[in-house]
Structures are given as C-alpha cells and as structure tokens.
Amino acid sequence: MEKLERSLFRLEQGFELQFRLGPTLQGKEVQVYTNYPAKDHKFDRLKFHSLDWVYPNGQEDDCDKYCRLDLIVAGSYQYYFSCGDKEKVSGGYIVVDPVLRVGANNDILPLDCISSQTYLAKCLGPLDKWLDRVRVAKETGYNMIHFTPLQKLGVSSCYSLADQLELNPNFSLEGKHYTWRDVGNLVETVRKDWNMLCITDVVYNQTAADSEWIDLHPECGYNLVNSPYLKPAWLLDRALWHLSCEVADGKYAEQGLPALIQHEQHINALQGILWQQVFSKLRLWEFLQVSVDEAVEQFRQLLQAGSLGVTSRSSTDCRQQLKMVQDPQHRRFGNTVDMESALDTFAPHRSPSDIQECCNCFRRRLEELNSELYKEMNCHAEQATNCIVGNVVYERLAEQGPKLGPVTRKYPLCPRYFTFPFEEMTFEEEMHLMEQKDKACHFLAHDGSVTGNNPLRNLAESGSEVYLRRELVCESDTIKLRYGERPEDCPYLWAHMNKYTEITAKLFCGVRLVNCHSTPVHVAEAMLAAARAIRPDLYVIADLCTGSQLTDNVFVNRLGITSLVRDARSATGSQEEGGWLSWFGKEPVGAFFQPSLRPLIPAVTHTMFMDGTLNDHSPIQKRSVYDFLPSSALVSMACCATGSTRGYDELLPNQISLVKEDHLYSCWNPEVQKCDQVNLKTGIMAGKMALNKLHQELAAEGFTQVYVEQLDEDVVTVTRHCPSSHQSVLAVLRRAVKNPEGHHHTDNVPPLFIPGQIEEVVLEARTIVRDINSDRRSDININSLPEYTAEIQEHIQLKDSKVVKKAAMVSKHSGVGQEILFKKFKPGCIIIFRVTLESRSREQLGALRRHLIQFSPQYQTGSLAEHSTPAVLTKPLMTIMSRLTLADMNMLLYRCDAEEREDGGGCYDIPSWLSLHYGGLQGLMSVLAEIRPKNELGHSLCDNLRGGDWMMDFISNRLLAKGGAVGEVGHWFQAMFSYLKHMPRYLVPCYFDAIIQGAYTTALEAVFKQMSSFIQNGSSLVKQLALGSVQMYGVGHCLTLPTISPHLKDVPHCLSEITCQDNQCCVSLAAGLPHFCVGVFRSWGRDTFIALRGLMLLTGRHLEARNIILAFAGTLRYGLIPNLLGPDSYLRYNCRDAVWWWMQCIQEFCTLVPDGVSILKCPVSRMFPTNVSDPQPAGAWDQPLYDVVQEVMQRHMQGIHFRENNAGPQLDHNMTDEGFNVEAGVDQSTGFVYGGSRFNCGTWMDKMGESERAQNKGIPATPRDGSAVELVGLCKSTVRWLVKLHNIGHFPHAAVTIRRGGQTYSVSYVEWDHKIQENFEKNFYISHDPHDPEEKHPQLVHKRGIYKDSFGASSPWCDYQLRPNFPIAMVVAPELFTVEKAWESLDVAERKLLGPLGMKTLDPDDMVYCGVYDNNLDNDKFNQAKGFNYHQGPEWLWPMGYFLRAKLYFAKKMGKETYDKTVNLVKNILSHHAVHLERSPWKGLPGLTNENGQHCPFSCKSQASSLAAILEVLYDV
Q1: Could you tell me if 825 and 740 are in contact, meaning their C-beta atoms sit under 8 angstroms apart?
Q2: Which residues contact 1035 (CB under 8 A, 6 or more apart)?
C-alpha cells in the first residue's frame, strides 16, 4: 500500500482522474475519500467525502472498478482510502493547475506561455508613474508582472513588512493618497488592455521588527512568556550583546581581543573569552537540572508516608525507569522527577531502616542525571562558540565576506537573536526582567534560517535548539511569527494574516510565497485556501531551497504550488542548465504518443525558469556582459514558464540592493533614449522581446518536446519540437562565461547537422558595443550600461545570415537535412532556426497520420490526404483483421522462438540487447509498453529502429510468407512502414509504436469478437486470460494432432508446406512456453484436457475443442490416451490421469456447448482399434464417441496391464525396467480407480529421479500409486454423468461387463456410482477421532480434518501427505464431501499450502518438503538433486484454480456471510495473477513458482493449465 504524500501528481483542469484498486486491496472493503469539492459544494480542506465505485462492465469486478473525479477546480486536494475497519490506510495529494485568463475576452494564458518580469516595488515610485515604468515589461514581450510586496515596509528589506494591511505610503503623492483600490484598478488595466497578469509576494513567516501591531500583540511572536524554553537562548543573546559592547569599548584589548579583529590570534582570544566570560558565568546547564536536595527530601517524605514491600531494581533499570518532569516555566533547577517512577524504582523491600539507603541511591542517580545534563548543555555551548566564531570570521576576515571593520554597537560581534525594546541597562538588571511577564513578553525572537535544516521543522518551537546553539542565520530586522496549531492559539495573528491574504487575492491573479520553506505548512495551507475561496484559479509560485525533490513535493502538494522558481544562474554551467531544460520540458523530441487513458505517474513540479532574480549578482560580476543574451535565449527555449528581473535586460552592472536601493526604474520612451528612459535600443531589450515572443508562440503552438545538446564547451543547441506538425525551432547559442574582450577564444564552431529543411532564421542576435556617451548617469534612476546593445535580425533567410557560412542539403543515415557551417559565431551570439521536414517526408508523415486516425483522433492534426493510396490501406484494418481466424491470430500475435524456429525462422533479435519473446506483435508490445510511459528513447529497440529498417521488414515479411488473410495483414504493415522509411529517423520509434499499438489493439478487438459473451463482457483480467487461448493454440509447421475422421464436417484444411497436399490443420495446445511448444513435447494429453475447459470451452471455441477431443479419442489404446502426442513411436501411454481429464472434458462439452451431447455420436477414427493393432489411417476404423467412452470404462473395470512399446533407455533413460509396466483398474470393493507402482508415476506429479550422485535415478519422487484422490473424483464425476446420460437417452450403455475366473460379470453405472459414494469419506477422510476404526494406519496421521492424497499406496505414509489434489475432487465431484468436513480441510489447505500465485505441492511441515526447484542442481541430497522436489513443495498454479473453485462451492453451502468473505478472498488472491499477467513480458502465468511466490527460472513462463484454471475461477465467480 503506497504512501504518496511525497509524490507529486499534477493535472490540468478537464482531466478525469480514476482511482483503481491495487493488488493488495482487491477483495477488500475499500472506500476512497477526498476533500475535492463535491458538485455544487464549496471547498473545505478539512471536509472529506467518499467517492462511489463505477463498474464499467456491469459486474462487481475489483480488477476494473474505479471511482472518479472530474477535475474542474484548481488547487491542492487530498485523498485517502480506508480498508475494512482501518479508517485511513494511505493517501496522497492531487494538484490541479489553475487556468489563467487575460485580456478583455478572458483568453487563456497557458502556464508554459508565461514570461514574467519581477519589479522591486519600492523602485517604482509614486503609483501614478507605475504604468510608465512597467510598460517596459509590455514592450519587451512579457505577459506577467511580478511585484515585490506593496505593503508598508519596515526599516530595511523589501520583504520586511511593517503593516500587512496598509499600502506603502511611499506610493502616494503629497495631496494624493492612493489605496488598494487604486492598485486594483491598475492591475485590471494591465490585464485587460495590455493582456498581462500581475502577481505579488506574500510573507507569512515574519513581520518587521518595527511593526506597531506586534507591540500591541506580542503573543504573535515567540517570547519568553509563551515560549519560556527560549530563556537560556535569550540570556546568551543578552550576554553576547554586552560582550560585544565591551569589545567595542576596548575592554578586552589587553586580553588579545581588540575592537578591530584582524587575524587568527584575535579569533583564538575570542574563543577563550566566550568560554570563560560568557558560558561559565551564565551556568545555562542549571535550566536543565533538578534540585537534588529538594527532590531527595520530597522522596524521603513519600517513603515515610507510603507502604513498603516493593523490590528495588538494578542500576540499569533505574536509568531507564526514572522520569524527568520538565518545568513548564523553564527556571533554573526547575525540573523535577516523576515520583511515581522514583518510588517504583527505589522503594525499600525489607524495613524502614532501608529508607536512608534508598534516598542515598536516589541522590546518586539524580547527580548522575545532572551530570549528563551538564554535558548536554556543554555540547550546545561548544556548538554556539563555533557558530559565533565562524560568523565573526566571515563578517570581518573572509575575502568574500562584508568586512564590517571594528566591532561597534551598529555592527556588533554577532547578530542579535531577540528584540530588546528597553533602555540600555546592566546584564544583571536584564535578568530580573526575564521573570516579569509584562516585560518578558516583548523579548521577541527574530526570524532566520539554518543551512541544511529540515524545512518542515519550526526552528523556534520547543525541541529546536538553534537559538541556543547560535546556528541561526538571523534577520535582525524581522520577528518570527507564532501561529500555533490552529486559529484559536493566536486569534489576532490568524485574523490579521487572513485579511492580508484576502486583500491580495482580490487584487492579484497569483502570489509568490516568500520564505515558503520557513512558513509553517499548515499556516500557508489555510491562507491559500482563503485566497482560493476568493480567486479559485490562483497562480502560486515559490522558491524552495530544500535541496530535495521529495521535500519540495511536500510543499507543492500541501500548498498547491503551481510553479517552482529555478534560477539559471545557480547552475554550475551550460551542461547543468541544459539538463534543467530537459528536466523542465514536458517530453523529449520524438516522444511516444500516449494513450488517453493511462496510469498517472509522479510528475515534476511546473517550473518558472529565471535568467535572473533579485537575489542574484549581475552576470557581469560573475561572467561577462556578453553572456546576458545567450543566457536569456537558453531560458526562453525552456518548455515551462520563464522569468527575469527588471534590470537584467538593461544590462545593470550591479545587483539592486533589496535594502539600500533608493533609485527608481527608468520609464519607457520608444523614440529617444535619455539617461532616465529606456527603449528597444537599451541593453538586450530588443533581443529579449523577440525571445519572449518566440517562447510564447512555441508554447501556444504545441512545441512541447525538448532536446538539448552541448556541441562544444560553450556552444549549446536547444530544440523545441511540435509532435503534431513536426516543425522544430532550434536555437544555437554561444555562451560568454569569460569576457571575449579580454579572453582569447576560437572562432571554430563545430558544424551542425539539422534534420529537415530550414524555413527561416527566426532570430539572429549578438551583443555589440555602440558609440554613445557612457558617462551619462541619472541621479534618480537605476543606471545600466548604455554602450552595449543587442543587434538583431528577425525572420530572415539563410543567405542573409551574418553567422552562417554555408548551408548544404545532405543525406545521412539519420535522414535528409542541412549541414550548417558557421562564421564569426563569437561568444554572446545566438541564432534560431525554424525547421520543417523536407517535402517528401512531410507528405509521407501527413499520409501516415491520416491512416492512424482509425486508432486515435489525436493524429487528426497534421494529417494529409495523399494522391495515391495503396489498395490495402483503403479499408479499415478491422476489416482485414476480421478475416483472421483465432489460429491466424496465434501467428499474428504470438509464437515464441522455438515455434518460429520450427517454421525455419526465429524471433527478432535486437543486437546488444535481447531477442523478443514472441515473433508476433506481443513480443514488441511487451517491450514498448515498458518504454512508452517513460519515453525511454535511448532503449536498444529505439536505437535499432533509428539505425535501419530491419525490424519493420521482419514484421511484414514474416506475415507475408504465410499468405492468405495473415499475408494481407503483412501487406498492410508493409504499406504503413513504407511511410516510416521516408521520414527522419528520430521520428521512427514513436510512429512505429503508433502503428504497432494500433494494429495490436485492433487485433485484440477482433479476437474478442470471435469469443464467447463471457469473454466479451468480462473484466480486463478475464480478457487477458482468454488471450491465453490464442497464445497456446496454434497450427504448427509439423502437424501434432492425429487426423480425425474424414466423415466429420467443419474440419479446417490447409496446404502442407512439406507435402504440398491439402491436410487437416486443427489447432493443438502448446502445454507451456517456451519449453513445451514444439515437436513431441508440444501436445501433452494431461495438459491438453486440464486446459481445454478454460481456454476452449469458456472462450467459445467449441468447434476446435470438439476436434481436439475427437483427435485424442482416436489415439485411445489400452483404455488410456497418450501422455505425449507425436509420431507413432513417440506415443507414450504411461499416465493414468490423462484419460480421466479427457472424459471430464467430454462431460463439460456436453454441458457447456449448445447441443453439446451431439459430440457423443461423432465418428472417431481409431488409430489403434485393438491393443495390438498397427496404426490405421483416418476413416479406416470409425466408431461413435460414446463407444470409445464405454471402452475406457470397460477396460478400467476389467483391469489394465501392459508394458510400454519400445520400453528401455531409448524411450526413457531414467526409468528402471519395472517402471515401463503400466497398471490401472478399479477396486471392486470401493469402486475407486487405482493404478501405478513404486517404479513409475502416472499422475501429474510425475517427476522421475535423474541423479546418480544422489542415488535417486529411476526412483519416482511422487509415485502416488494406489487410488489418487483426484482420479477417484474424476472417475466419480464420469460415472455420475454416464448414469444421467443413459437415463435421458444420450448414452446407450447402462453398465460395464468384466470377466473374472472365466465368468462374465456386469457392473451397472448406478452401482459403481453408489459404491464410490459410500466408500469415499470412509477411506479418504482423516477424522479428529484418534480411535477411528476406519483408520488403518493411525501411527502415520500427522494432520487431522483433511483428506488423504491417495488410498492404498505401496508406501502408506504417502497416503497421509497433505497436497493440493483433494480440491480437484471437490470441484468435479462435490457430492463426495460432507460440507463441514470439506470446509475444514480447505481451511487447513489455505493455511498450509496457499501461496501468492500457486499452491504448495506438499505440506511445509512434511520432512521432505523443499520449496525451491533447481533442475540443474546435482548434489548428494536425495530429495533435492536434479529437481527431485519438483512436486515436493514448489507452488504450482493450476491447482490454485481448483482450490479457489472448491472454496467458492462450499462457501455457498456455508451461508451468505461465508460466501461473501470467500469471494473477497478469491478476488484478493486473483489480483496477484492480474499483476503478474500485466507485468510479464510473456503475458502469461508460469507453471510454478518457488516457495512464497518466488520466481522459478526453470518454469515455463506461460503455462496453459495455469491460465485455464484461473479463468475457470472467474467463470465460477
């Protein structure tokens, strides 16, 4: 069960979100809850409601049911689910993006179109001049303006707000007072007239230190009254202030610490003074310690007044048990001890004379505790000393530091952590103030941050020691706000900030959360909820500095942050910036087309990529003036929101100070540039306007794919690609990290190959020096570098380019394109090309998209009609597919490598990777399904497709070779692939996938149309399992089924490739892939009929099922059907159970198929009319099926004894000579079918020992001789059925006759049926009565309340082994079982044998149990070597089907409540099979797993019996 609080799931409005059950939840009572508002309800983040389940196929199937949300409201929403009686099991968040609208017509502004410019509000001057100053953003192509806070500011930073509710008075003029309404009017003018949006900053974690309201409401900050745990930190802060004053006054100069700290000796002196004059005198450890004398005296009094007799504990227990009680006022020696724990630990146990001894022990323990607390405080003091010294070194000595000079009261030794709003006084006087609440409440903690701190942790709350340890990077002009957990904890602050939020939300379309990581998340949640109540589509951005994407996701999820700010200049170089572009981009170029219904995968937060922020130094200070333009180009090519800061485009040489800046921004003047005005000739503004315009066009026109390539150390290309039109815009830019005016650089730039045809140069730009008076400076406005400007050319032809030397059309393996040679492409240059496909590629691609529309309407855009369409493409693919039989579909979709090689081919091999699992489409789909959602274009399959046409030719040629309807599909692929071969190779993988995916889904649709209503109306799991019918049944190169009677109608024929004659071509079953699918090991009698009901009858393939039944009927010999089906010499009649599975299938055919009993009259061509006959040709000896059935019953009642033909090592090199003797019959006293010996194994548990080393060669691991329980059940089922058939006139035989001692006896089926019924539980059930008179071997019983695995085995202990075979008998002959006994035995099987996918083949308590099968392992272990434990523990899947069906049958007999619980159990178990099917590249279920569901490498990857058995369970449900 996933916990997804740190995973980001982000969706746009208009999506439908579905919640579906994972495998661990299926079959359980699950309910999904969300706080997404129900229809016609307002959002309340604390109010959750449940979602209704939707059943798409009308059945309560957990595989496919879902609940849904139609996402039409922006914000962050929480969901969770309950399971059973667990109210909240897991959950997560959904973030729905807002829809932004601009202009008088409320046009949508997509998030990726955003180009934002940040303005430092205090540099805008009076409000009446704002439009002139912000017009710069409009004229340079921005569509969003971001303002820093507009509120009244404190004494310093623009983020330090003195009053959150008051507009900054500096925006008003003398005689003209502006209000928030005026700001709102301006914002609306900008939105409607300029098509621009405005957002602003909100600050929730702090207020200015000079805020008047905080003096009136000091409870809104962290002070010594509401946060008394800060007292030690406050004392230290005051002591440091007084030390600083004394250092400034020169009092420590003689001790080596002058006011001007200049070298390491001064630092060493400071460390000594801190320790000796500050920490030692403050005795801060006393705030942690206990008053020992007072505690001991209290303890003594309690002992004297209390009862005796409690035993004292060891000293180790004392340390663990003694509990400290924190003094809520945090006074010196104020902590106490929990006296209950003290009495429990130290109470005497002999006499009152022990009281003193106990008190002494108690005292010693308290002194130990105090000593430990002393050490703890000393650790804090050491860290504080390190931090203080480190701060002094940075501020006064470090090269990169501010070098503050001498210590003064203005620039103290270290920053103050708390306010002190009183006159100067002595330290001793200040200490008295600490205990006066009316004074102490005004000692408020400043805000700040700690590098590397957990951003979800509040630095000022109890438990955090950063103020004491002096780890805070303090903002001494601010006060940290204390909200508490809920509004009731600080009503004024919550109300104040809520009003602040509402004012902001009414005016602005979005906010930037300042200090988001320092704001309590629950506070920001509440405030943003209030903002969204006013403006539902609120745009929220934040700059998170957590250093962790998962931690970022916590903030994004809980707050519904739309975009995270990323600063390009914080990257270490072009390569990292390029990596960011790929990261922020939606898709790589050539990305796969995703289906409309797809899994929701964790996303990356939407980004606002900035080329500069207010906190940055100017690029000139780090790089060069020539780097402004290429940096901006790199950012503008990102597929996300972009942003910049006012001043960047004007080439400001210095960073604007957030604290000291007192100049104003220049106004816009398009005509003449004065020193206090700007226009497109200023700086790179012309280039930025073109870049912003391009950025917005690319997003609006769907250029969602991004590719970044580093051509050279300073040359980068960025491609934006449109997946529908396949136009590209490619930017080439050369960075100028080092100033080219003073640094040598080469003019050699690598040639650039651009696939396709260049339509135009969208933009060519460079920074140049112009002849202008650079000494002009404005005293009022912020000054730029007027001597630099951007020289640009827009929308020109290649021939007019100043940096392109040559552009030649060339043909490369990757396609036709243009090779660009550059000239004078110097640092600081950019060139941007618009590229289209060359004309032929464009035509071919348009035609291909037109043909793909039949699969999805997403291909409509960019589709083109063609002049001449291949004939095979003039009709829908479904028309072609509908002509294919299910046998043809086996060829189209599946066939593993062994099957392909038998036909002379093989599966496609991808060099440097693997071969595909199938020659058909499923082989490709299994790989593509893995790489498509992740757009894994670097996968070897994609490399192979880009490298050549080999895979496409393989697919079409393979099908063309088959001719007929399959060949027509091959022609279709050939025609579709011909389009692919004429387009750029980078597009081949995505369109190849589109073709394959479309053809595959069409084929599946055609498959299901040929199947039963159970499959057509079934769940996705039912359909997946049903595909096993197509996967496993096919017509091979070598015919594996015997020829059936020529007198039968509707038998399929085909032309033999070997004899060129018209032969029958009935499908045969591959028992398992890839091991049992060709030659003599393809068709197994047992596996064929275990699987036939599920894969043939339930899927509606009745005619093919009939043919298989009749083909095997023709092979009957000795009263058995073959275990292995092949040429005459390979027919082995060495299994006792296959014939009974065959009989059961005839019964099922008669029951499930309309007029199914007619099969009994079908002619059977007997290959061996007698036991000694030579093989006869088809039609030479026909008899009706009912006579063949009668022969089986007759021969078993008479008794079967024969030796296998061709017996010896040439037939089976492991079997002993005695093992070739086959015996079977019916016990006349019980009616039980029996057979076998200790030398062979005639049931499905047929492992023969192979290891000479372990001496198990020739010894059956599981002989199961005697009466195997499932065979008794199958026999009973058959006999019961024959009685019924005879009674209604469909079976002419009422009895069997046998000869004994020269006499003939008749045994009626009624008598036989009664005899089995009468004797079954008497002989198979192991009762709880240890004295049960029916029990022949009570000493062998080790489990009771179960059914034996066999009866009458040559090794009696084998009868008593717990195995998963008795549920088979329960399913086919439930009448044999008493309901209560059956239910109890199934419960034992569930507890002991049930695995994740299969059933353990032996009780884990059995001495020979071994759950891991390794057929290659040859050691000395008899029970393990060479896979001897094949059926002695490994978990087989097909018995799982019978176990679950038995559970369902008897659960219904137990009552509704039990049945409902069982159905849920079955659903939960089957969910594991659904997951395996979904994830398996074979799209099948294995034959077995090792213990506890572990993968078994020796198992078939897909087993027919496994698929069939699970499908049968779903049919029963």
Answers
A1: no
A2: 887, 890, 1054, 1065, 1066, 1067, 1068
pLDDT digits (tens, 9 = 90+) for 1075-1090: 999 988 899 999 999 9
> Distance between CA 834 and CA 976 in Å, rounded?
28
Mean pLDDT over the full length of the chain: 92
CB 683 within 8 Å of CB 790: yes
**836, burial (CB in 10 Å: exposed 0-12, middle 13-18, buried 19+):** middle
- Is residue 457 classed exposed, middle or buried when 0-12, 13-18 and 19+ CB atoms within 10 A define those classes? exposed
Overall average pLDDT of the 1042-1062 stretch = 82
List all residues 6 or more positions away from 741 whose beta carbon is below 8 Å from its beta carbon. Answer: 624
- What pLDDT shows up at residue 319? 45
| SS3 category, 475 | strand
Residues facing 480 on adjacent strands? 206
Q: What are 959's two structure tokens?
A: 């099908």
- What is the crossing angle of helices 950-960 and 964-980, to 10°? 160
Alpha carbon 1171 to its chain's center: 61
Which residue type sits at 68?
A: R
**Total residue count of the chain as it appears in this document:** 1517
Query: Three-class SS of residue 165?
Result: strand
Q: 213 with 496: CB under 8 angstroms?
A: yes
Does residue 831 contact residue 804 with C-beta atoms inside 8 Å?
Answer: yes
Q: At a CB cut-off of 8 Å and minimum separation 6, what does 1093 contact?
A: 1144, 1145, 1148, 1152, 1508, 1512
Q: What would the two tokens of residue 469 be?
A: 């340890």
In 3D space, the residue among 1393, 1406, 1399, 1317 whose CA is nearest the CA of residue 1361 turns out to be 1406
Query: How many whole angstroms separate alpha carbon 941 and alpha carbon 953?
Result: 15
* Alpha-carbon span 1082 to 1071, nearest angstrom: 6
Instruction: Let me know: does 1025 contact 1512? Beta carbons within 8 Å.
Output: no
pLDDT score at 318? 46
999-1020: burial string, b at 16+ Cβ within 10 Å, e else:
bbbbbbebbbebbbeebeebbe
Q: Are 514 and 159 in contact (CB under 8 A)?
A: yes
Mean pLDDT confidence for 455-459: 87
Contact 1230, 1319 (CB under 8 A): yes
pLDDT digits (tens, 9 = 90+) for 1333-1350: 889 899 999 999 999 999
Element (H, E) at 117: strand 115-119
pLDDT in tens, 489-542: 999 999 999 999 999 999 999 999 999 988 999 999 999 999 999 999 999 999
Query: Which of left, alpha, beta for 515 (phi over 0: left; psi -120 to 50: alpha)?
Result: left
pLDDT of residue 317: 46
DSSP category for residue 757: E
The token pair at 1495 is 């993968």
- Report whether 1230 contacts 1324 (CB < 8 A): no
State how beta strands 563-567 and 587-588 pair: unpaired
Let me know: does 136 contact 644? Beta carbons within 8 Å: no
Of the candidates 257, 573, 628, the residue with the CA atom closest to the CA atom of residue 407: 257
* Phi, psi of 831, rounded to the nearest 5 degrees: -145, 135
For residues 1103 and 1087, give the distance between their C-alpha atoms in angstroms, rounded to a whole number: 19
At 37, the pLDDT band (50, 70, 90 cuts) reads very high
- The answer to whether residue 624 scores a pLDDT higher than 50 is yes
Cβ atoms < 10 Å from Cβ of 1222: 23
Q: pLDDT, tens digit, for every residue of 250-294?
A: 999 999 999 999 999 999 999 999 999 899 999 999 999 999 999
Cα distances (Å, whole numbers) of residue 157 to 148, 520, 900, 901: 11, 21, 75, 77
Q: Report d(CA 549, CA 1443) in Å as an integer.
A: 47
Q: How far apart are CA 897 and CA 918, in angstroms?
A: 6
Q: Of 1441, 1438, 1364, 1347, which Cα lies nearest the Cα of 1400?
A: 1364
